[in-house]
Design goal:
Blueprint: H1 2-19, E1 30-35, H2 44-59, E2 63-66, H3 72-84, E3 87-93, H4 97-104, E4 112-116, E5 125-130, H5 133-146, E6 151-156, H6 162-174, E7 179-184, H7 191-202, E8 208-212, H8 217-226, E9 230-235, E10 246-252, H9 254-266, E11 273-277, E12 284-286, H10 295-311
Helix pairs in contact: 2-9, 3-4, 5-6, 5-10
Length: 316
């Protein structure tokens, strides 16, 4: 009877291991993903979702995704449900989640919260900061080398975006005679207003546009193709969207960052506080050059980027 009982216990243990967190013996259990928008925007939200799927594949954990979460109350409702389902690492994909997490984190001391581009942190809150100035700067330099009309447009979500400032200064440092026309949507996703602003920029005789917003950059790139002008991709490498139109993309490799954050947490090495990611050719970089970029300009850009990576200097 004793032998039979031992056999049953061993078999039960084996089944629990096989059906649960198979070989994951680290801190990570399951992962929650909260978005203030959607996973279908082809840039910011989609990158987060693909990153979460990579975590699921690599760590063999469950992923719970909730879209259009915009308030602290909605955040707490979702976090409460996620905790019930075994989540202990929660991503909030946007800056507003810093405030939402700060309102509730003490209620959930066993959870770790990660969000993006904010300055709020606590013992169990980490902010991931994308320093976008340099990627915008290099895209601006490239645009200045390609433009023929010396009129370049930007459709930004907000005026304060560091990649927009970088783009503007990259253009001006390359050729101060180029005019840069900036229009701001004041929203990440308002496609209708963004298209109106883009049509307004076309009247300025622009031949390159940088649509720096999650919900409207793809539609503007496709319209730029129809108008026979060039565009700069945003967040993801958007060369394939229109190879003859996209000159390059300002890439933030969200998928890779998500996986690395989860691995750090699993190994007990994810710090609280604010973690900065800058232009490093690993997480933040320029995407593939488009068909309209000459070999000479490609060489000049590669040399500029290589010098920056070696010295930290953007200008000569």
């Amino acid at each position: 009877m004793k032998k039979l009982l031992i056999f049953i216990l061993l078999a039960t243990s084996f089944l629990l291991v096989s059906c649960g967190q198979v070989f994951n013996t680290g801190q990570l259990n399951n992962v929650g993903l909260l978005l203030d928008g959607t996973i279908h925007d082809e840039t910011w939200g989609k990158g987060a979702y693909l990153g979460a799927l990579e975590i699921k594949e690599e760590q063999n954990v469950s992923i719970l995704t909730r879209e259009n979460v915009t308030t602290s109350r909605e955040t707490e409702e979702q976090v409460k449900d996620m905790k019930r389902q075994g989540v202990n690492l929660v991503f909030g994909h946007g800056s507003d989640f810093g405030t939402h997490f700060n309102d509730i984190n003490e209620t959930y001391p066993g959870l770790h919260f990660v969000y993006f581009n904010g300055n709020t942190f606590d013992r169990n809150i980490t902010s991931i900061h994308f320093d976008g100035y340099e990627m915008g700067y290099f895209a601006g330099v490239l645009s200045a080398k390609v433009t023929k009309t010396n009129e370049i447009g930007i459709v930004s979500a907000f005026q304060s975006q560091p990649e927009v400032q970088g783009f503007f200064e990259g253009v001006k440092d390359t050729n101060s005679n180029i005019k840069v026309h900036i229009r701001s949507v004041f929203d990440w996703y308002d496609q209708q207003r963004a298209m109106l602003l883009f049509n307004d920029l076309l009247k300025e005789n622009i031949d390159i546009v940088y649509p720096a917003g999650d919900g409207f950059n793809i539609p503007i790139i496709l319209e730029a193709k129809k108008q026979d002008i060039y565009a700069i991709g945003y967040v993801s490498d958007q060369y394939e969207v229109a190879p003859g139109t996209v000159l390059t993309s300002t890439v933030q490799d969200i998928e890779k960052i998500y996986v690395d954050i989860a691995n750090q947490y699993d190994e007990g090495e994810l710090p609280s506080g604010v973690i900065h990611y800058g232009f490093d050719d690993e997480y933040i970089y320029l995407g593939k050059y488009g068909e309209a970029v000459s070999d000479r300009v490609k060489r000049e850009m590669d040399e500029l980027i290589e010098r920056y990576l070696e010295t930290g200097r953007l200008k000569k």
